[in-house]
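[recover] target loaded
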């Protein structure tokens, strides 16, 4: 989540606008805070599985990995239910405690257990 926040911070500064993402390194806390956004900006996992067309490039995906931990990243594209993602603190196989920022194309919408948010 820290990577996601940092990206929004950099983009917001470049555009001269307020950062729309909550300032937290916690995936779970960010998801909780996002629940106060307009409904069209938040797509819970169940809703995404029912209607994958609601998941769009630019959204942030949220995964709860248990014990108050999670993983988040950006949706770069959606191809037939498969997500192309940009993830910080990751690696080529997608482990949570990674070594850098990676583009991945192996996550499926059905595998995201928390949901998606469009911060705008």
């Amino acid at each position: 989540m820290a990577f996601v926040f940092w990206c929004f911070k950099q983009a917001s500064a470049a555009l001269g606008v307020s950062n729309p993402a909550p300032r937290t390194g916690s995936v779970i806390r960010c998801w909780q805070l996002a629940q106060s956004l307009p409904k069209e900006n938040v797509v819970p996992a169940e809703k995404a599985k029912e209607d994958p067309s609601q998941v769009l490039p630019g959204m942030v995906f949220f995964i709860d990995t248990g014990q108050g931990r999670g993983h988040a990243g950006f949706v770069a594209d959606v191809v037939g239910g498969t997500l192309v993602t940009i993830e910080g603190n990751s690696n080529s196989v997608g482990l949570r405690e990674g070594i850098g920022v990676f583009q991945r194309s192996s996550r499926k919408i059905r595998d995201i257990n928390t949901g998606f948010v469009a911060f705008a």
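[recover] notes: The first strand starts at residue 42 and ends at 44.
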